[in-house]
Amino acid sequence: MKYLYKLFPALMLGLLFTSCDSEELHDLNINPQAVNEMNLNFIFTTAELGIAANGSSGDNRYTDWRTNIGMCAHAIQHLANAGGGIAPGDKYTENFETNAAPFEFTYNDQLKNIAEILKQTADGGYDAGNKANMRNASRILRAFSFQRLVDFYGNVPYFNANRGLDGSEYFFPEYDESSAIYKDLLKELDEASAAMSASLPDEGFAAADIIFNGDVAKWKKWGYSLMLRMAMRASDVDAALANTYVQKAIAGGVMTSNADNAIVPMALGPSEWTNQNGISRAFFPGDGGQPTFLSKTLIDYLKGADHATVADDDPRLMVISGGIADWTAAAWTPINTNPLDQKGMPNGKDQQDLDAIEGTAVDQAKTYSRINYLMLQDDDPYMIMNYAEVELLLAEAAERGIGGASNAKSHFEAGVRAACQMYNIYDASLKVDNAAVDAYLAANPYGTAKPALQMIGEQLWVSKFLNWWEAWSDWRRIGYPVLVPTNHPSGLTGGKIPTRLKYPTSEVAGNPSYKSGSTQPDDYTTRVWWDTK
Known about the structure:
Number of helices: 22
Shape: globular
């Protein structure tokens, strides 16, 4: 230490009597080891993993476990929970991590990475004029991510979001109106989808793109399909906007088969924290261990109007349900796989409530149907958006006379068929043949068994199994299926199903802009801008 004391005065004298110009002083502040050029291919792949809640920000289970599963799957009554795990959507309780996870991970993960790609491919960036397809694919990913944020929270920072990365030191972005964000996102989808072209140089895009492997035609279909989703989501509050963009989506070309589904592949390696399916990890015994019991609402729907026969059963019953079974880290042990005996757990109940309903001490594992474990392997793919949704939205648009869509019955039947036949990506044994779908459609004729819009809403709801975030949004907008709310003593909503997430406490306390532009009141029953049902 004494040498430092002696050296310091000498250094100070040297600085005082040394002539330095401003440029030399400026250079002293530049870190010669700082990274100022990055391989955008790696960043793009990370952004794609991020939309599957599997990006670079930490636990790949975190957002799925707390929000997709804990809130959404239970609130829309696909799953039920009578103790254990994370399930604020079952009894309408509060979990601060459930509220925070999508906000924090979306901004800090995929949107951060996408912002870097857009910055470096814009004028002045080191890849300016290059990677045009990657740039426009990133705009589509960005629209997907912001749509989800708006649908969860309402108003969010958008136009000035993620600008802390561009050197502007813009650390407290304003909140923007949801309607303005939606309009800009639709414009972005329109421009980005149209601009993608197979004739442009690849420059590593195909290798970086793990969703479509650089297939520009599929990217364009996904962009226009997202446009259709967002336009229909705005249809009750801005008819002109919906009409314009449904028409553009149809003209641009939406998904036409399950081969167009947007799917992020997963893998077992290099570790459980990297590349594995976060939904599966949340449920897998010995890892997440979240209970996997299916809701009575869902099982009753899949068993058809007559529970005493399989004649009108939905062919997805024993695809979504693996049966009544015991699942441990060591083995999946079926107890009862008879379709007639499948039984869902009622939502909003505790163990003592189940005992009272059943008239005996209930062993949950031996009583209630579980999610099929074949859909919950750690390397199972993660489906982001499916073709079935597109056909069902086109059926709704045709039924309501929006955007020039026509032939609602054909679109509905194509949507149901696609929804029944998309699960073989998890395991070949989950394939549903055409005969089974034909029988189901014949037993449930479009617009006859129930009103057409109700049938469309119910099919959208069941088609989003595992993609519970979007099922929650569909239910909030359409109002089908008719769900009976729970009213548990610990609930915070007065017996109302939650209709939005609350902002993270860190955002409330840390961003001064929250006070002037956020959606208020900041509670679970405030409706986002498109929710009129």
